[in-house]
């Protein structure tokens, strides 16, 4: 293999890579980096997930049994089940289309050498044996062996947990899932696709998921409990129906009615649909949701950690001034040539070096013979420039430790930084650097000043988070004084004195105490960002982290929710749960609002569904113990559920809802549903008792019980719909009108096996409903009194 000397004096191999014929052969053999997982659920998975569920199996079996028993009208619940399933599939397919479209925009590219030419291709098109080029910010997409390294440092912490970057030399192994923090290099892909060590890391970060959600986990706990209740209740109810009717076919409708009522069949469907619609809504705002529960999680966030660069400020960092400190350099162009060399160094990547490159051209007469590439951990880089000597460019506070700067220079730097200007120090080294250690003495040569522009949307967004009681922490690798000045310009509340992260303790609890008290932190290393997030989590906080650079990857991964900018590094986008594709910081409040809508509405509709489960379960047990015929037919409970739960729950699940997140989802749902369900069960049971009178037939008692449940269901719906709006009142009025139409139109009334509303039925219904409503109001008042007393007892 032939070699050439690159700009830094390193021997770089002349790499040819694979030929087109070799690439085609590997593609034919399936030796590519493509895997079956996509950025969203497969169609087969969506269909299977919506059809093959626990309750679909139960209701499907009951549907078949009811049909076989000769009661097709009582199988109406099967049509509702089918409609729910179809709507769920359609909405999740729409979400898949949205995710796939946005994933194409967010697609990570790799640079490969093929046929002696360098080109960019998607990660999925890498084949076995490809030669790939690496630079700072790249996430490695396959396993392989290093062919060339020029200061190449790899962070493998996402795989190994070790935070220290690993220097890679020719012959060293590189692993997929790790990322480049500094330097450049080439490696050969020896393991691709499913064979790669951490291929699952990249695919999991982009997969459409419906798991690991507090709401979903809470609902699953409730559903498991309901499933276990159904078995004994079903056996008890079937035995009572056999006793009442004598034949199995006659016992089926009553048994099915009780069991169908116990199943909250629309709840799981609604959760899936609500999440899917959230993905679609956010997709319209150019927000890529890479992990679905992120929408819900962001609504629970109470601390948001912001990386200054790229979040509070935009990407337009500009070089503004050069202040020579060496009298011999003031009137020469030597500084411009030296800075031009730093800006053109291919192995060092950062926003400040890019700004330098735009202001100073690459010098032809200066030869780079070595150096140390920039990394956010070191916060400096160096170049050996042949006869011009060795130069170091980096954070003044870091270089001052070796530069022996006087107090006036330090004061000068702090004064500039206090205006929100970023400052770098250029210093001359008296000798060549040994490894990555600064020499004992550096000679300050010049200060470089850079202007940062605060995002126009930063102030409004920060005000929103402050109003929502979300604590803001500004974390940056820059000078603490500069960070504080920028934070004040962006109107970050309670900035206070900035903290220099070099003095922070390593102990998690000590660090957490400081994080709770202070707002602005500077000179933070990538490992410290991760530790800061962990310390806040140790205090029970739900933490969001925003970032766009490779130095933010560890913290983005550690946070409860990581938010990356679309213009950020591939590594940061790969590990984040949310990607703001257009980089608009002002989109975050909309994401929070979407999450709160999801949480608030799911809690509201969960109460509706579980009220029905409670009263249906209690009625099944009570009637089973009494040995009576079940008062309802399946079509009655389908009617009650459709008018008071199904249709309004579907509408309410998409309504605006600004309710703030509160822990205790399951407790609140059960605390509401159980007493209300008990009251409704008592009311329905009271209506059922009327059939003991010889002048009241079974059909009339069923009609009375159905009327009572509809009235009470609409009353509960009105309570859960507060605050009332015109459309909510209109919805409830329309539902009530619909039931009246069913009751007075003979065809509908006969279809649902209801009796004409005689005076006896009306009076019984009014009396039972009034008593039940009064009892409900009493329980709600008592619950409110208990909550108020608890708040007073816990108040300081």
UniProtKB/TrEMBL annotation:
Gene Ontology MF terms in the entry: ATP binding; ATP hydrolysis activity
Predominant cellular place of this UniProt entry's protein: membrane
Record-given protein name: Magnesium-transporting ATPase
InterPro entries reported in the protein's UniProt record: ATPase_P-typ_cyto_dom_N, ATPase_P-typ_P_site, ATPase_P-typ_TM_dom_sf, ATPase_P-typ_transduc_dom_A_sf, ATPase_P-type_domA, HAD-like_sf, HAD_sf, P_typ_ATPase
Keyword terms: Membrane, Translocase, Transmembrane, Transmembrane helix
Membrane topology per record: Multi-pass membrane protein
Secretion signal, residue range per the UniProt entry: none
Subcellular location(s) per record: Cell membrane
Top-level taxon: Bacteria
Annotated PROSITE patterns: ATPASE_E1_E2
Domain P-type ATPase A: start-end pairs: 107-204
GO cellular component, as recorded: plasma membrane
Membrane-crossing residue ranges in chain numbering: 51-69, 75-93, 221-239, 259-282, 609-631, 637-655, 676-696, 702-720, 732-749, 761-783
């Amino acid at each position: 293999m032939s070699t050439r000397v690159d700009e830094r004096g390193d021997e770089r191999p002349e790499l040819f890579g694979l030929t087109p014929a070799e690439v085609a052969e590997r593609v034919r053999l399936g030796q590519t980096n493509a895997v079956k997982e996509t950025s969203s659920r497969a169609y087969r998975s969506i269909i299977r997930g919506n059809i093959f569920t626990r309750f679909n199996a139960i209701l499907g079996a009951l549907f078949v049994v009811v049909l076989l028993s000769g009661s097709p009208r009582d199988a109406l619940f099967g049509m509702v089940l089918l409609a729910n399933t179809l709507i769920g599939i359609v909405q999740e397919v729409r979400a898949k289309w949205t995710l796939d479209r946005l994933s194409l925009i967010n697609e990570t590219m790799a640079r490969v050498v093929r046929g002696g030419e360098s080109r960019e291709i998607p990660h999925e098109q890498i084949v076995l044996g490809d030669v790939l080029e690496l630079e700072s910010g790249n996430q490695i997409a396959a396993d392989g062996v290093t062919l060339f390294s020029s200061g190449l440092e790899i962070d493998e912490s996402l795989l190994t947990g070790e935070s220290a970057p690993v220097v890679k030399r020719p012959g060293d192994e590189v692993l997929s899932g790790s990322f480049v923090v500094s330097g450049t290099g080439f490696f050969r892909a020896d393991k691709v696709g499913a064979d790669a060590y951490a291929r699952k890391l990249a695919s999991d970060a982009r997969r459409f998921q419906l798991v690991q959600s507090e709401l979903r986990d809470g609902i699953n706990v409730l559903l498991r409990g309901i499933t276990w209740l159904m078995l004994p209740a079903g056996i008890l109810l079937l035995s009572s129906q056999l006793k009442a009717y004598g034949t199995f076919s006659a016992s089926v409708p009553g048994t099915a009615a009780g069991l169908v009522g116990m199943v909250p069949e629309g709840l799981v469907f609604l959760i899936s649909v609500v999440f899917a619609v959230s993905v679609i809504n956010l997709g319209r705002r150019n927000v890529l949701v890479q992990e679905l529960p992120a929408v819900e999680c962001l609504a629970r966030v109470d601390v948001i950690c912001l990386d200054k660069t790229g979040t509070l400020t935009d990407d337009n960092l500009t070089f503004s001034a050069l202040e020579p400190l060496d009298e011999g350099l003031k009137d020469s162009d030597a500084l411009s040539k030296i800075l031009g060399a730093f800006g053109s160094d291919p192995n060092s990547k950062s926003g400040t070096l890019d700004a330098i490159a735009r202001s100073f051209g690459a010098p032809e007469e200066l030869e780079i013979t070595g150096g140390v590439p920039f990394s956010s951990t070191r916060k400096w880089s160096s170049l050996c420039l042949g006869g011009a000597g060795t130069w170091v460019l980096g954070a003044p506070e870091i270089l001052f430790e070796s530069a022996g700067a006087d107090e006036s220079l330090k004061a000068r730097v702090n004064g500039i930084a206090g205006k929100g200007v970023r400052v770098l120090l250029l210093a001359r080294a008296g000798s060549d650097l040994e490894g990555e250690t600064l020499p004992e003495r550096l000679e300050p040569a010049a200060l470089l000043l850079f202007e940062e522009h605060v995002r126009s949307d930063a102030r409004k967004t920060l005000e929103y988070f402050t109003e929502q009681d979300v604590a803001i922490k500004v974390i940056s690798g820059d000078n603490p004084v500069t960070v504080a000045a920028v934070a004040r310009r962006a109107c970050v509340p309670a900035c206070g004195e900035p903290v220099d992260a070099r003095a922070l303790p390593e102990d998690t609890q000590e660090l957490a105490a400081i994080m709770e008290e202070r707002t602005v932190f500077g000179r933070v290393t990538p490992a410290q960002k991760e530790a800061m997030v962990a310390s806040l989590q140790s205090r029970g906080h739900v933490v969001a982290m925003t970032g766009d650079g490779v130095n933010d990857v560890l913290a983005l991964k550690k946070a409860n929710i990581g938010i990356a900018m679309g213009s950020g590094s591939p590594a940061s986008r790969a590990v984040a749960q949310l990607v703001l594709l257009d980089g608009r910081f002002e989109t975050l409040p909309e994401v929070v609002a979407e999450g709160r809508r999801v949480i608030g509405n799911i809690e509201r509709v969960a109460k509706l569904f579980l009220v029905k489960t409670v009263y249906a379960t209690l009625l099944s047990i009570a009637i089973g113990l009494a040995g009576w015929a079940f008062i309802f037919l399946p079509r009655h409970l389908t009617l009650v559920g459709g008018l008071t739960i199904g249709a309004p729950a579907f509408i309410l699940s998409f309504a605006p809802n600004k309710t703030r997140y509160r822990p205790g989802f399951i407790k609140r749902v059960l605390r509401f549903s159980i007493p209300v369900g008990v009251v409704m069960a008592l009311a329905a049971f009271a209506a059922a008792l009327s059939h003991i009178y010889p002048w009241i037939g079974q059909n009339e008692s069923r009609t009375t019980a159905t009327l009572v449940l509809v009235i009470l269901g609409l009353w509960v719906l009105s309570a859960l719909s507060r605050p009332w709006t015109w459309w909510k009142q209109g919805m409830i009025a329309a539902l009530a009108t619909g039931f009246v139409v069913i009751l007075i139109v003979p065809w509908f009334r006969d279809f649902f096996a209801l009796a004409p509303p005689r005076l006896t039925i009306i009076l019984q219904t009014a009396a039972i409903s009034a008593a039940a409503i009064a009892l409900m109001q009493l329980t709600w008042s008592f619950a409110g009194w208990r909550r108020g007393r608890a708040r007073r007892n816990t108040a300081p």
